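re the bet — no i am not wrong, look at it urself. input seq straight from the record:
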Amino acid sequence: MKKAVLILIVLLTTGFTIAQNPRNVVLYNLTSTGCGPCSCMDSLIRHAVIPLYPKTVVIALHSPISMGGSAFWDYQGNQIYFQFRSKSEPDGFIDGLGYDVFYTHIADSVGKRYEHSPEAPVKIEINAKTWDPSSRMIDLSTRITNIGSELPGSYWYNIFITEDNIKMVHRVATGCATPDDPHGQPLRYDYFNDHVTRKVEFFEHGDSLIGPNWPAGQEIVKDFSIKIDTPWIPENCRINLIVYHHTDSLYTSAIQQAISQTVTGGVGVEPVNAVPSSTGITLVYPNPATDILNIHFSVSVSGPCSLEIFSNSGQKVASLIDHWVDAGTYNTEYYLKGLPNGSYLVKLLSKTGESSRQFIVRR
């Protein structure tokens, strides 16, 4: 008892305070699957930023330039990319403060932001969250409060839906990204991308929350109903709600607070066990397909894994994955350009067995 009292006295006398409304730093990651060092940025976020600062809200915006840019170039929201000043090398933008950070300094810069400004002036609470798997709709009720003194200016908000574990051919800088294979085998351009922006609820401009000022203590209740499209895996999707001081660009729109929630699960509840109970292909969509095919599959035991496509005659026409895959649920996008009309078989082979699904290409 005496020891606990002593520790408390030391904390009080040294000026240490526990954040009552801790800030969740936002990191806009400008990236591209056609950029080798962009895999370095993703790897640093995955292995350095998130483990140290797990509340960081990451929004990956892919280059909207189709030729030589990202394979995700036509995803909704990528036009926001042009609101930031971007170098040829990957960089990130923290909390809308009007400066960019080169990828090699990203973990240190995020840490300094938490250290410099641990408290957020705005509090975001989720009162209720309901996920309906049949309609694929998520209903969200939120309360957004100015918990400090009056805030001058206009305040806006936006919602980003992001998805993890999307496999796409990705240029990889040699010796930069952490290999998927723990035995050190090369990535062979197979890469599972995280934080990929799938949808921006209020387009790139956001929506007005309050202004021309925000009185102290004032609460604002906002309710949302958002559809999670069929090609996305809901268990891998997150809802990211961001409130910011609106200026002429997101580049200089200082973020007041942000929260990130899984689509599935209860309010504030992260999945207890993300490891699937079985291995297999769970969805091939759309079927029939015309230009893009989404293949959802689960791996229950980490190990060597292959995902291949065969013609109706048994000829292999594509090898989508051929390396070590950690246990988890994945989404593979395959562009069907050049593949003739007809019937095909997608086959998954893993440590625990084989799974296959048939699909049709029809244009």
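see?? The domain at 26-262 is CATH 2.60.40.10 (Immunoglobulin-like). told u. also Residues 1-16, 179-183 have pLDDT under 50 and may be disordered. so pay up
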